[in-house]
Amino acid sequence: MTLRAPNDAPGPAATPTQLAREALYAWLTVLLLVAGLVHLNIKVPAVGHLGSALIAVTFLYVPSWFAWRRGKDLVDYGFVAAPVRRGLATACLVMLVLFPIFIAVYIGFYEGVCKSSTLAHLAPRGLCSRYHGLAGIHWPALNWSFSAKDNFPEFCIVQLVVVALPEELFFRGYLLALLEQRWPPKRRILGGGVGLALVLSAVAFAVIHLPKDGDPRALATFFPALMFGWMRSRTGSILASTVTHAGSNILIRLLEGAVL
Q1: pLDDT digits 0-9 by tens, 106-131
Q2: Which strand (E) or helix (H) includes residue 187?
Q3: In this structure, what are the phi and psi dihedrals at residue 2, rounded to the nearest 5 degrees?
Q4: What span, in angstroms and rounded, lies between the C-alpha atoms of 232 and 225?
């Protein structure tokens, strides 16, 4: 996808400071739009939740518009699948290593808080009353029929295309790329850059989750955001982080179905 300015001639190169300022303006624009759209509870046939759909459009359109103003291409921000093999291999490796740890932490957390009267408030309201405990863990009931409401295949597609892809384009593709030009990573771990830009992009990602419910627990998304950013830096594409992001959301859905 090529987005060039109307005269098809790129303007003067922006300085790292100007790019960091642009990243801030773009993030503030997205934050304000998401804060309003997340409360737009309207269902539209063939679209679903209108607010969620418009949020996805926002994550796609805002970086496109800012890139267009500078005569840039979204390919410059990792909006490509290549290298496919490296991206998929990285995603699979990360999920194989981290998902079992996440499952253990998830179940351990609710085992601890839901069985303690003093810690129960740490869980979302009403969740502990539905938590079955270790003895009640079961295979989640999944509806595989596309014609049924809340079917699992549709959920997986939505998480990949409507949730993960737009968010990864904005936060790991566009935002992180601009921030790394201002604050280049000082070290690389297994090929992925680690530095201030990675931390700032993760903070921006975590804060954007607050407007939905105002729940401070949403700030925990800071930690997977660090991993998503590292994957983007390691592969040069948002493919790995998009697949892992969607996989994480699907895993949480499966865990909720298994213990609630």
Answers
A1: 999 988 998 888 888 888 888 888 88
A2: strand 187-189
A3: -110, 125
A4: 11
